[in-house]
Design a protein that fits this description.
Helix content: 25-40%
Number of strands: 24
Largest sheet: 6 strands, mixed
Distance between the termini: 56 Å
Number of helices: 17
Strand order of the largest sheet: 6-9-10-3-11-12
Shape: globular
Strand content: 25-35%
Length: 500
């Protein structure tokens, strides 16, 4: 006997002006199941989750919860019926502590007074229940992965029996993701329904009971996850097959002199005595656990964070980047992990974002020359296959994959010699990933040096000519592609192998 329906959609649609984000979707989500939704960016999967959770209202159709028709006007109304939403873009109060964010609106009280001792006890019990290790510090001090955990803790703390999770593992390491999977399975086993939106197809197949595929805002298929494969999901998502392997790396001339050399670089409390070099045409991937110092090294090289010791050389000559502007002048560019917070101006247009890093190239006498801007933006959007209604469209209206392409365009506007990328495919779908992989390989083939950090070990191994492994702020391995495999890299990252 099949489980009863917890949430049901009947002919649900969502329009934004002339754009139809979701079209006539009918879907049944069984109680106590992990139900995944997959699809390309812009397929409508996140919109479905937001409509169920009261974040946005449907334009047409009906949503039923336990057989009763509902019309939520806010997430608060949805939460009152036991539905919580964890969105891909985190919504936290940076200046408040983790516990304050977790229990925001449901604080512990003794009469009219706030009971901090009781709240600390609740917080400790919640951490023990989930197995998460999150310091009770101001959220602004946390890394993205830790902030994601705070969102998950907040939903669990409200005893929701239906939780929408939109890309919950996008910023987590494999170890942290495994912890989350255990929490999700435990929630399911106690009767909680999980609607799981993800780009990670392997993750979906391992975790979900049922999977729904969407394409162009429409429902394509719903089937038991056990009956699907990565290839079958891709075919349903794209309407065609897609090669899931990485593009072939072009040979890199190891005899060429380095374009970038880092020697004994240190930042107190973050990393110590890090040394490596980077040659033209070379792709170097940086692996390691969250907190190992991977991203911090890139930020220090770029001049975004101060250094306490060591040196950076460009073409063998010492440079002192006191700010990112200094690095940009030397054609050293970095694309940050969070495009929303550090990379793009979400309410400004595609065109404005792309030219922002090099306004001088499209200006004369202090004025932007629109013809030059149109030419530069047209060239970049065509080369990167950015899909937007027009260059004037706000970046915030684009799918995650297209936002990431705009971020690449902004960096490439400067024609960099060194391109550093922190999490190049975070929050993008399988087709956009493949496009970004091909872009990185082609940039290196054209002579650009690429240094990237990724939490996806498969991505590091699939793209890099060399793999650097960080652990506890130190560079513990520098491996050529032919030496690097999952066992070797993970051994170095966890400290179970001999340090290189």
């Amino acid at each position: 006997m099949s489980a009863p329906a917890h949430v049901e959609l009947r002919g649900v649609s969502k329009h934004y002006g002339g754009v139809r984000a979701v079209r006539d979707v009918s879907l049944t989500i069984a109680r106590g199941a992990i139900h995944a939704i997959v699809g390309e960016n812009g397929a409508g999967k996140s919109t479905v989750g937001k409509m169920i959770g009261g974040v946005i209202a449907p334009s047409a159709g009906e949503i039923l919860v336990d057989g009763e028709s509902v019309a939520f006007r806010s997430p608060g109304q949805a939460l009152a019926t036991g539905i919580a939403v964890i969105e891909q873009e985190l919504a936290l109060v940076p200046a408040r502590s983790v516990a304050d964010n977790v229990f925001l609106g449901v604080e512990s009280r003794r009469g009219p007074l706030f009971d901090r001792r009781a709240q600390r006890a609740r917080f400790a019990a919640l951490l023990e229940r989930t197995g998460f290790d999150v310091p009770d510090a101001p959220v602004a001090q946390l890394r993205v992965a830790e902030q994601q955990k705070v969102e998950i803790l907040r939903a669990i703390s409200r005893d929701a029996d239906f939780i929408v999770m939109d890309e919950p593992t996008a910023a987590l390491t494999q170890v942290e993701s495994d912890q989350l999977y255990a929490v999700i399975r435990g929630l399911r086993d106690t009767g909680t329904t999980i609607l799981y939106v993800s780009h990670y197809l392997r993750e979906v197949l391992e975790l979900a009971d049922t999977v729904t595929v969407m394409r162009d805002g429409q429902h394509v298929v719903t089937a038991p996850a056990a009956e699907q494969t990565e290839a079958s999901l891709v075919r349903s998502m794209l309407g065609r097959s897609l090669e899931l392997t990485f593009p072939d790396r072009q040979p890199c001339d190891r005899d060429r002199p380095p374009v970038l050399t880092v020697t004994e670089l240190s930042r107190r409390g973050r990393f110590d005595s890090v040394s490596f070099d980077l040659r033209p045409g070379e792709i170097v991937g940086v692996a390691g656990l969250i907190g190992s110092g991977r991203s911090e090294v890139l930020r220090a090289v770029f001049g975004a964070d101060r250094i306490d010791g060591g040196a950076v050389l460009v073409d063998g000559k010492p440079v002192r980047f006191r700010s990112p502007r200094d690095a940009l002048r030397k054609k050293v560019v970095m694309l940050p992990e969070s495009r929303k917070d550090d990379g793009l101006v979400m309410n400004r247009s595609v065109a404005e974002n792309m030219v922002l890093a090099d306004l001088e190239a499209i200006s004369s006498a202090g004025l932007v020359r629109r013809e030059r801007e149109r030419s530069a933006v047209g060239r970049l959007t065509s080369a990167l296959d950015v899909r937007a209604s027009s260059p004037a469209a706000p970046v915030g209206s684009l799918s995650g994959g297209n936002q990431q392409k705009v971020l690449f365009g902004k960096g490439l506007m400067l024609a960099p010699r060194v391109l550093m990328i922190d999490e190049p495919t975070r929050g993008v779908d399988v087709a956009a990933k493949r496009a970004i992989y091909e872009l990185i390989v082609s940039l290196a083939a054209g002579g650009m040096a690429v240094l990237f950090v990724s939490s996806e070990l498969e991505e590091v191994l699939g793209l890099a000519h060399r793999v650097l492994v960080m652990r506890r702020g130190r560079l513990v391995a520098d491996l050529r592609a032919e030496e690097a495999d999952q066992e070797v890299v993970l051994g170095a990252a966890f400290g179970t192998a001999v340090e290189a």
